[in-house]
Amino acid sequence: MQHGSDILIIGGGVIGLSTAFRLAEQGVSVTVVDRQRVGTEASWAGAGMLPPGVSATATTPEARLRSYSYDMWEPFSTQLRELSGIDNGYRKCGAVEVGRAGAAVDSQIREWQQEGLRCDPLDRAALERHVPGLQQQFQRGAFLPEFAQVRNPRHLRALTTACQNMGVEILEEV
Fold it and tell me: CA nearest 119: which of 139, 94, 137, 99?
């Protein structure tokens, strides 16, 4: 470990590395230790799905947290790419949410629309255009065009490299 590190972070997943990155940005010396190689456990296995949010209209704690996170991803991804030279695969790609016909699907669509999310309701024919061969049990759904994604393995490589470039010491298999 660096002599005189201000902070020791145990766990080199996306949360530990992101915390180290933000601390290093502020001039804090940081050491990250992980019992495995960094980013190889739950962070590696995550799906990388980034659901949209609108902070101005978010009313529940979940919606506020989702919207704050969503607003941070694009600039954070750009910053990591500039510091590491690695594209983490951040993209606004849209997503189709499906459900069986009924009140639950309609209720979810209304919630998203009340939150101010772009959300296009889809009947079975529209679902089939988005997802050919979708099982017949799914009769209703919605397209959320602002839904984004990140490629977890690439994000972790970009984050690790950016941390190292900022002087964060990373100790693996400790």
Answer: 94
